[in-house]
Amino acid sequence: MTWLAFVLILLSAMLHAAWNLIAKKNTMTVPFYTILCIMGALVWLHVQFWTPVAVWSLPLKFWLMIAGTITFDVLYCFSLVLIYRKMEMATAYPMMRSLPILLTVLTTAVFGLGSAIGWVRGIGFMVVFAGALLMPLRNFSQMKLSTYLNWKMFYVLLAACGTTGYTVFDSQGVKIIRSLYSDVSAVTVSLTYYSTRALLLSTTLCICCCFMAEARKVFRDYWEKRNFYPVLAACCSSSTYILVLIAMNYVTNVSYVQVCRQFGLPLGMLAGILILKEKSAVIKWVGVSLILVGFAISFLG
């Protein structure tokens, strides 16, 4: 993993925490996420007109990757809505970001995607995961299995599966374009992929919302109240994932991307505490410390 990839993912983590804060503060809904995706698609639509990549002539394998990423992103969207209705950001955000570490490592290992991560970095990944497991707790007495085996955590697991799925499919989609257009810059490839992905994802979510009476009502409320928070969140969201897609060109295994994105966990917790006035606890700070230590091991190992 290069320093460029590290810096890109670090900036991405900050923006990711920002849009999740906006979503939590303004009630996360499917229409909110849909508007977020639509705005991202519109902002980067121009890429379709100047990219040297013949997008609509790409092979079937590429479109299967796109179909996979859209499926898992929709799963992530619906899970996120349930989570932010029932859980605090300081509790939910760390779990949603940490579980994909192990899930991505497992997926890449089972399907042979990318190079092996090595045992030292593997230890770092586990330390990050252990820290994340502590962050949803209020005290050390809650460190028991029953704390994690409930419906709220099931929704978190679904969101984590969604994140893992779309990350893996996206990394493969970007690789397909890179293999066919090796002379095109990594930035152009990433922008092309994101623009195509955003167009199809926003279309899929719009179709879903058409069949949901509650979603149609929320859309009207956003318009009547001139609520521009989804637009602000869209700027952060689209920027954060473009940075991730660019970083994917500079790593040998997408698991590195997942673990480095965990830098957003302390930021998400601090945002929840300072802005949303959520409660802090010693155990949460222990969790943050473990995440930072594990992050250092993963990057320097």
Architecture overview:
Helix 1 (3-25) packs parallel to helix 13 and helix 5 (89-111) runs antiparallel to helix 12 (254-260). This protein is mainly alpha-helical and 301 residues long. It has one domain (3-300). The chain contains 14 helices and no strands.
In short:
The protein is 78% helix and 0% strand. The chain is an all-alpha fold and 301 residues long. The longest helix is centred in the middle third of the chain and has 30 residues, at 151-180.
Q: How is this fold's topology laid out?
A:
Blueprint: H1 3-25, H2 30-43, H3 47-50, H4 60-86, H5 89-111, H6 119-134, H7 145-148, H8 151-180, H9 186-210, H10 213-224, H11 229-247, H12 254-260, H13 264-274, H14 282-300
Helix pairs in contact: 1-11, 1-13, 2-9, 2-11, 4-8, 4-9, 5-6, 5-8, 5-12, 5-13, 6-14, 8-9, 9-11
